[in-house]
TrEMBL record, chain A:
Record domain Solute-binding protein family: where: 96-438
Signal peptide: 1-44
Family designation: Belongs to the bacterial solute-binding protein 5 family.
PROSITE patterns referenced in this protein's UniProt entry, alphabetically: TAT
Organism: Rhizobium herbae
Subcellular location(s) of the protein: Periplasm
Domain of life from the UniProt record: Bacteria
Lineage: Bacteria, Pseudomonadati, Pseudomonadota, Alphaproteobacteria, Hyphomicrobiales
Keywords assigned: Signal
The protein, known as: Peptide/nickel transport system substrate-binding protein
InterPro entries found in the cross-reference section: Peptide/Ni-bd, SBP_5, SBP_5_dom, TAT_signal
Pfam families recorded: SBP_bac_5
TrEMBL record, chain B:
Record organism: Rhizobium herbae
Domain of life where this protein originates: Bacteria
Protein name according to UniProt: Peptide/nickel transport system permease protein
Cross-referenced InterPro entries: BP-dependent_transpt_permease, MetI-like, MetI-like_sf, OppC_N
Family affiliation: Belongs to the binding-protein-dependent transport system permease family.
Automatic annotation (TrEMBL), chain D:
Organism field: Rhizobium herbae
Origin organism lineage: Bacteria, Pseudomonadati, Pseudomonadota, Alphaproteobacteria, Hyphomicrobiales
Domain of life of the source: Bacteria
Protein's UniProt name: Peptide/nickel transport system ATP-binding protein
ATP-binding found in the keyword field: yes
SMART domains: AAA
Keyword Nucleotide-binding appears in the UniProt entry: yes
Coiled coil: none
Length: 527, 276, 344, 535
């Protein structure tokens, strides 16, 4: 969920939280999971113990809280996963693996009741042993009217959570859902001691809180009796808030921090050209897009949409924005590595004539206003300018309106008809499509309402025949590419950088940046 | 303008620099080889025939960006400074001429304005209002007006005491006449200097606002935005990244040189000349 | 932000800066004068509080909704508004807020429910620390340079000092900051580029870490103060008593030091105050570039979050600092002025 | 003659290519006082400073020598010049109030040079200073030095400055118009003090002044300068009894004119009744002032600084509203305060200020300055306007070529004439003259006075004439009011006021006016009864 944070810009919690949840929900759906190619520098080598790991991360805020319910951004995810564990985790292969739970299963055939068996002998930082009641308490933390937790959405279907044994938790759902366990992977689902205050940061995590200054730094030291013996290599971790991209790079280059996130693609080559720097890449992790609301003129005209799709120079965008990283989009929300990706749809390229043709066909309407701020996606302002220029060559006038990053997701996104937006890519087609293109989806940013589409989507979810299923997804993609309001020029790799001393990085597909934000317990420092 | 000191080399440099800037701003459409946002090369290409100063962070011709940027920078800085002076000088003079409670009220209000942190003011206002040039100019003008008020009031306060102003009052002249005819002409040279300094300040202030993302809107960019766009390059010693910042500095220096020249004291170190 | 007000070497500014505008009525003792200034300052501060409160009321977007975001059901919004006391009319909220503020209670942050006073304190401390460090370097240095350039008025020394300081103020702060980083941190690994200080940090290391941001600030304020010092001194050097001193056969340095400086103090002190205020209030850019945990960054975070109480608190603190510094400056220049120190 | 202390030969000083001092030669014997006299621009101060090896900025000593005890002091090294100044040669500046550093106590400044040159120990220096304070008749000599400059009066400071000059036992003191800034009554005190001090210490001195009458009292010899050239040099007696040059004769014969006294007062134009006024509430500067000015007559208000005479003028103009009392003008009640007055009233009361430089807007041409009132009051335009302006110029005896000039391009006298013309332009019944001549050189001043008198004769304007100079009163007044401390102490027709029996103050005032003859001071001092008060 990259959202370039300039200091004047506010990152809207709500949207991101729920997107994250949705993302993980779907991540879990990839129970047939697939390994994503990551490009981590030092993987193979054997872990080295000890050392003080320093992270310089974007998106911290002085209003951050340790309570997982309020996490909204990479910075707190990374800090939170140092302190808290979740019941389940996403493995490097994208599969669900047990964390605090050793096993889990549906207790009823209709999957409306789930039983989680917890590992024994796990201790909280305060010495208390982990029991079922802690999990019950921690999960309930996200439920009920008063809770304003970002995890709330995950547990809406939950009707009851019981400690059915000292180390057994039983969750009852209003309706069957084979994918429920995935909910417990979510960043917000950190487990704390029963009745405890989450803002104290006491969990079962690999690291124990030493010092936390919101928006400044978090210092943690290794948890001596951490349950996962193969993790938590460094003695202590310092997570420093660095909202300025240049400052982050400077810190890495001057050896003040070991790892930074949110590397500007433009700086990538220069950065990687520096000795002692490795790039940590999570491939095609994010989709950059210009959604058009198909219910608003002039975008309600399919030819205009086509015109604009042809009028954007994707290569140029990739070259200038991503400096060759990432991949070119084809107005298709499904990433190329996805098994259901429709390879046969021809890649759309910049074509001024076609654009002009469709534009005329649409009656050459005026008043095409693209509202962007760097909150839409990093570089979206530059992208909009380039789009403007290339469209102009096709005789299409785009009026770029730069809106304040501040309040972008509140007042612009989903409100203005033509904006910039970004999505973290979901591992499964269903997740991606139902998230954005279902008629009733809250973030249906293109106002795409198509009953047939919805039906097919629902059908696919239960279709067990792979070929049929593949066909359905294919048709859906074709429809979106040809008629959809979503203009998707780019898929972006999440780029982080680290000193070459850092080992242990593994990309976690669908889990987001920095080894699914668990870099702290995975990384070690080579001498 | 009368009684300016003789031209010094430094002053000459300053004048030339400022003139050059204004020319850039005025003739941007003719001077800029490329449109503002046209991509002509790779990221941070070295200078070439096509891109005299190399290309910027997304491969646009830096020279063209600079030229267009000069225009934006100039327009905003000049406008805001002009407005600031319109407000600041008229109020400042009025306060000085009327003295008494009018002066007190205006001055205290001004103190109040100055006590409100510039930063908060800019942040709040620019957050509240739509980000467009008009708002930007007005915000900058308001903030600068307070400083202008302070100085121009001081200038006028000195002149008001002079007999020829009293004579005018005795004649029954209107305040406006006294301000325009008796005070303004004699305040010109310090005001001119102040104008220069405010203009320089406006340029820096604007660039800071742009750096904070509160500034100029695309596709145009002021010099401050250019620095911001290219700042990453600074770390890697990219030539192009240095230019916009250097340009701002050079311009501000030139303005100050001119100001210093206007203000050059004829009074000596060794004591004022008295008759004898 | 945007560099300190550049109004170098204008007599008029010197006068504009002269202490106790208008009311130079001698006869009233220093104490009554001090009290007068303090009361005036308080009055001003109160006025500022009004303006700030009013200003923050017009921040866009409803706090409650932006806090709840997508989950903002009317009921939830209502309950939040009640919880925050937003349903009360503004005047009442103002009075309550001010009443609490004078007791040092700025309420709790909307966004993270934390006691604002508590969270501001360390940030303010850091900001003050950085400002102090910069001032300790910049003030003596600029005054020294000012004196030097007067001693060597018109010579190459004077010109060089002038040009260097001028260049210093002419560099946009963030640009200067990045240049320093690029050179001292990235090109050579001499100084750390980020200044994330914490109380755990040993003081020595703290200072090292703060060196670059400090240097940037020094560059920003040096020129203004130096040029003002020079202008004020030159101004005084034109007065008859300097000639008297000259005709006593005193050497140049003594004339400048003993006869000119004491009489040029008031404008100098005032410009120093102005710049100190800037160091404290206007450093957000530097804080961002050098990742320094000070007030500015804190404030900006919360403005973004429409965290009204925080913005109000910060605004008030900043204003208080500004006003206090000015009062101090006034008093110092009063003390420097025998007319007011020893009334007839 | 006896051994020569200072010998100046063919001294030439230039500002750029303008010659300020042109081939001036003189010498000064030990123990004697040479008076340098001349109007502004005569180069007298420049010569004075040259004898300290100093030339003000923009001036260069381009020729000649100045030898102190046979040692050339014009071409010394910086260091030697420093050693000379403040030790062998010292300086007393015109305005001690400005020439003392406000930041330091007087004593420290008085002994600074002495200490710096290591001439005596601090204790000794302080002792010496105290003696000098006593010698110069300063109050409480023991502690006087602890005061700051702003705590002393003009006269006291001027004496303290003399003490400062005497402290290091100099061989030569340069007095640069030491009494010019003082009131007559103070001037006489200071003069006496200086004269006595010089006599007692036997120091030689250059005494620079524009006022021959003053110089005559202190100097042994006089050097008359004009436009940087020597006019005449001789002993005081020669200069007075046998002046060789016309210019000298003019100087000597000045201040003789007197306006014939009119026997009977005319009907009243302006009458002032029980006026009380002040700047700070509760502290009245004027108390119960009642005066009367007849049509076409001149009411001279005389008094020293702080007597409230200028305040009175401000009340009449309306710039300063009176707190009580009434003004009536031309039979009608005169509104109290500017705002309340009709344009007609404003037109009828005009003012001529003390310092013409401040009274003329430097950014306006003579034509603009003179045209404005004509356009403002009478709406004159075009030809009518021009011809009226022309006549005004004629009235003040200035060529029409002046029209295009800016004030900076005029001499002091010309400026003052323009001010008068501006007042005339309004065709007023009353012109308030606030010390219109005190900033001018004597001869120029006389010219202005004559002009005013002539205009009064021609157009019958009345003058309210503020001055500190009795000689001027004699020359222009019909009625005289003597003011002291905000009160009128003596008021009546000139003849009565200036004739005995006097009230003590007026007597002192009359006695203090320097008379144009040597030895006046000694007699005046002798005549004074009481031991010298500190002024």
């Amino acid at each position: 969920m990259p959202s370039h944070k300039t200091i004047s810009n506010i990152l809207q919690p709500t949207r991101r939280q729920l997107l994250q949840n949705a993302g993980l929900l779907s991540a879990a759906l990839s129970a047939g999971g697939l390994m994503l190619p990551g490009s981590a520098g030092a993987q193979a080598a054997t872990p080295v113990k000890g050392g003080h790991l320093i992270l310089g991360l974007d998106t911290a805020s002085s209003s951050d809280r340790l309570d997982p319910a309020f996490y909204t951004e990479a910075y707190m995810y990374t800090v939170g996963f140092q302190l808290f564990n979740t019941v389940l985790e996403l493995g490097p292969d994208g599969k669900l693996i047990g964390a605090l739970a050793e096993s889990w299963e549906a207790a009823t055939p209709d999957a409306s009741k789930w039983v989680f068996k917890l590992k024994k002998g796990i201790q909280f930082h305060n010495g208390k042993e982990l029991v079922a009641q802690d999990v019950v308490y921690s999960l309930n933390h996200h439920r009920g009217e008063k809770s304003s937790s970002g995890g709330k959405g995950q547990l809406l279907a939950v009707t009851d959570i019981q400690a059915t044994d000292t180390h057994e938790v039983t969750v009852t759902l209003s309706a069957g859902n084979a994918d429920f366990p995935a909910a417990l992977v979510d960043y917000h689902m950190g487990i704390g001691p029963d009745g405890g205050d989450f803002d104290k940061g006491i969990g079962t995590g690999a690291f124990i809180l030493e010092d936390f200054q919101p928006g400044v730094r978090a210092l943690t030291k290794r948890n001596p009796n951490y349950w996962a013996s193969d993790r938590a290599h460094v003695d202590s971790v310092e997570t420093i808030a660095m909202s300025d991209a240049t400052a982050r790079m400077a810190a890495l280059l001057s050896g003040q921090v070991h790892i930074i996130n949110r590397v500007e693609p433009r700086a990538l080559n220069l950065l990687s050209s520096r000795p002692g720097v490795q790039i940590l890449r999570s491939q095609e992790n994010t989709m950059f897009c210009f959604p058009m609301r198909v219910d608003a003129a002039p975008y309600d005209n399919v030819d205009l949409r086509l015109a604009l799709k042809y009028a954007i120079d994707r290569e140029e965008l990739q070259k200038s924005l991503l400096v060759g990283t990432g991949a070119i989009g084809n107005d298709n929300p499904i990433a190329s590595w996805n098994p259901y990706f429709a390879k046969d749809i021809p890649q759309r390229a910049y074509d001024a004539d076609k654009a002009a043709f469709h534009f005329k066909k649409a009656g050459s309407p005026g008043g095409i206003q693209l509202s962007v701020s760097d909150n839409g996606f990093p570089g979206s302002v530059d992208a909009a300018q380039l789009f403007q220029a290339s469209a102009a060559k096709a005789g299409i006038t785009i009026d770029v309106e730069r809106v304040p990053s501040d309040g972008y997701w509140d007042e612009v996104w989903l409100k203005k008809p033509f904006v910039a937006s970004n999505w973290s890519v979901r591992p499964t087609a269903d997740a991606m499509l139902s998230l954005i293109f279902q008629s009733e989806a809250p973030w249906n940013e293109t106002a795409w309402r198509d009953e047939a589409f919805d039906k097919l989507l629902a059908a696919a979810r239960v279709e067990l025949d792979e070929t049929k299923r593949k066909q359905i997804y294919h048709d859906l993609q074709v429809k979106l590419v040809d008629e959809g309001g979503e203009l998707i020029p780019l898929f972006v790799d999440n780029l982080a950088a680290a000193s070459e001393k850092v080992g242990g990085y593994v990309p976690v597909p669908g889990g987001g940046d920095l080894s699914g934000y668990r870099i702290a317990e995975r990384a070690w420092l080579n001498a | 303008m009368k009684n300016l000191p003789p031209l010094t080399p430094m002053a000459l440099i300053g004048l030339v620099g400022v003139a050059a800037f204004i020319v850039l701003a005025a003739f941007a459409p003719w001077l800029a080889p490329h449109p503002v946002s046209e991509v002509v090369g790779g990221v941070w290409d070295v200078p070439s025939a096509d891109a005299l100063l190399g290309t910027d962070n997304i491969g646009r011709d830096l020279f063209s960006r600079l030229v267009w940027g000069a225009r934006v920078t100039f327009v905003i800085a000049a406008l805001s400074t002009a407005i600031a002076f319109l407000i600041g000088v008229s109020l400042g003079f009025y306060a000085a001429v009327r003295r008494g409670w009018i002066d007190q009220i205006l001055s205290r209000l001004n103190d109040l304005m100055m006590a409100i942190p510039t930063l908060i003011f800019a942040l709040v206002v620019l957050a509240v209002l739509p980000k467009n040039m008009v708002v930007l100019v007005l915000v900058m003008a308001t903030l600068e007006a307070t400083r202008v008020f302070r100085v121009s009031r001081a200038i006028a306060a000195d002149l008001v005491g002079l007999d020829y102003v009293e004579v005018a009052r005795l004649r029954g002249e209107s305040w406006s006449w006294i301000i325009v005819r008796e005070i303004l002409p004699n305040a010109l040279s310090p005001l001119l200097a102040e104008l220069g300094l405010r203009f320089a300040f406006a340029i820096l202030f604007l660039s800071t606002l742009s750096f904070l993302g509160l500034g100029v809107q695309p596709p145009i960019a002021d010099w401050g935005s250019l620095v911001k766009e290219n700042k990453d390059g600074l770390l890697f010693g990219i030539f192009a990244a240095l230019i916009p910042g250097a340009a701002i500095a050079a311009l501000v220096i030139c303005v100050n040189l001119v100001v210093d020249w206007i203000l050059r004291k004829t009074t000596s170190l060794k004591g004022a000349r008295r008759n004898g | 932000m945007g560099g300190p007000p550049l109004a170098d070497g204008i007599d008029t500014e010197i006068q504009a800066m002269s202490p106790l505008p208008a009311q130079k009525t001698s006869g009233n003792s220093l104490w009554s004068l001090l009290v007068k200034r303090l009361l005036l300052g308080l009055l001003l501060l109160w006025a500022v509080s009004l303006v700030i409160f009013a200003g923050t009321q017009i921040l866009p977007g409803d706090v409650a909704t932006s806090m709840l975001g997508q989950q903002a059901t009317p009921e939830a919004v209502a309950s939040i508004r009640k919880e925050l006391g937003l349903e009360q009319p503004a005047p009442i909220r103002y009075v309550k807020w001010l009443g609490a503020a004078v007791t040092g209670d700025f309420g709790r942050s909307y966004s993270n429910r934390q006691d604002i006073a508590k969270s501001i304190a360390p940030r303010l401390k850091n900001t003050l620390l950085l400002a102090a460090m910069a001032a300790v370097i910049a003030v003596p240095l600029s005054i020294l340079l000012g004196i030097l350039s007067v001693l060597y008025n018109g010579t190459w020394v004077d010109r060089t000092i002038g040009l260097v300081t001028l260049s210093a103020i002419s560099l946009p702060e963030f640009f200067a900051g990045y240049l320093l980083i690029a050179y001292f941190s990235v090109a050579h690994f001499w100084l750390p580029s980020s200044a994330t200080v914490s109380d755990a940090m040993p003081i020595g290391q703290r200072l090292v870490v703060m060196l670059l941001p400090c240097l940037t600030l020094v560059l920003a304020v040096l020129g203004h103060m130096m040029r003002m010092t020079r202008a004020a001194l030159l101004n005084v050097m034109a007065s008859p008593y300097i000639e008297t001193a000259l005709l006593k056969g005193l050497p140049w340095w003594r004339i400048v030091w003993k006869h000119a400086l004491p009489n040029a103090l008031s404008p100098i002190v005032n410009v120093v105050a102005l710049n100190l205020a800037y160091l404290i209030v206007g450093v957000v850019v530097v804080e961002v570039i050098f990742v320094y945990p000070g007030m500015g960054q804190y404030l900006v975070d919360h403005v973004a979050k429409r965290d009204v109480p925080v913005v109000q608190a910060a605004g008030l603190v900043f204003a208080a600092v500004y006003i206090l510094l000015n009062i101090v400056a006034d008093m110092v220049s009063v003390l420097a002025n025998p007319r007011l120190r020893h009334p007839r | 003659m006896a051994d020569i202390l200072l010998k100046v030969t063919d001294l030439e000083i230039k500002a750029g290519d303008a010659t300020i001092v042109d081939k001036v030669s003189f010498d000064l014997q030990k123990g004697r006082v040479l008076g340098l006299i001349g109007e502004s621009g005569a180069g007298k101060s420049t010569i004075g400073l040259a004898s300290l090896g100093h030339s003000r900025d923009g001036l260069q000593i381009t020729g000649g020598q100045a030898e102190l005890n046979g040692r050339d002091i014009l071409h010394l090294s910086k260091r030697d010049t420093r050693l000379l100044r403040g030790a062998a040669v010292t300086y007393v500046a015109q305005s001690a109030a400005a020439a003392f550093n406000p930041a330091h106590r007087l004593i420290d400044q008085v002994i600074e040079a002495t200490l710096w040159h290591g001439l005596m120990s601090r204790a000794m220096a302080i002792e010496r200073a105290k003696e000098l304070f006593a010698l110069l008749g300063l109050p409480d000599p023991e502690n006087f030095g602890d005061r700051y400059p702003h705590q002393g009066s003009g006269g006291q400071l001027q004496r303290a400055m003399t003490a400062m000059a005497l402290c290091p036992h100099p061989e030569l003191i340069v007095f640069d118009e030491p009494t010019t800034a003082l009131d007559v009554t103070t001037q006489i005190e200071v003069l006496a003090a200086i004269k006595q001090a010089i006599a007692k210490t036997g120091t030689s001195a250059l005494y620079i002044s524009h006022d021959l009458a003053v110089v005559a009292q202190v100097a042994d010899d006089i050097l008359v300068l004009r436009n940087g050239r020597m006019v005449e040099r001789g002993s005081v007696d020669d200069i007075f009894n046998a002046p060789r040059e016309d210019y000298t004769r003019q100087l000597v014969s000045m201040r003789q004119s007197e306006k014939p006294a009119r026997e009977q007062a005319r009907d009243s134009l302006l009458s002032i009744k029980g006026i009380e006024a002040g700047y700070i509430p509760g502290i009245p500067v004027l108390q119960d002032v009642s005066l009367d000015l007849g049509r076409g007559e001149t009411l001279a208000v005389v008094g020293e600084s702080g007597s409230g005479k200028s305040t009175l003028a401000r009340v009449v103009t309306g710039l300063l509203p009176a707190s009580s009392g009434t003004l009536s003008f031309d039979g009608k009640e005169l509104a109290n305060g500017l705002a309340a007055r009709t344009p007609e009233t404003l037109r009828n009361i005009q003012i001529v200020n003390q310092i013409p430089d401040l009274a003329l807007n430097p950014r306006q041409t003579v034509e603009a300055i003179l045209s404005r009132p004509l356009a403002f009051y009478f709406g004159l335009k075009g030809a009518a306007l021009q011809s009226r302006v022309a006549t005004l110029l004629d009235q003040i005896e200035l060529p029409h070529s002046m029209l295009g000039r800016y004030p900076a391009e005029l001499s002091g006298g010309q400026k003052q004439r323009i001010c008068i013309a501006r007042a005339l332009a309004a065709d007023p019944k009353l012109i308030i003259c606030d010390e219109p001549t005190s900033a001018l050189d004597p001869l120029v001043a006389e010219g202005i006075l004559d002009l005013l008198m002539r205009l009064q004769a021609e157009v019958g304007t009345s003058y309210l004439f503020i001055t500190h100079d009795l000689a001027i009163v004699r020359a222009i007044a019909d009625t005289v009011a003597v003011m002291l401390g905000g009160k009128v102490v003596r008021y009546g027709r000139k003849a009565e006021v200036l004739a005995p029996p006097f009230d003590p103050y007026t007597e002192k005032l009359v006695a203090s006016v320097p008379e144009m003859r040597p030895g006046w001071l000694d007699e005046a001092i002798a005549r004074r009864p009481s031991p010298r008060r500190s002024s």
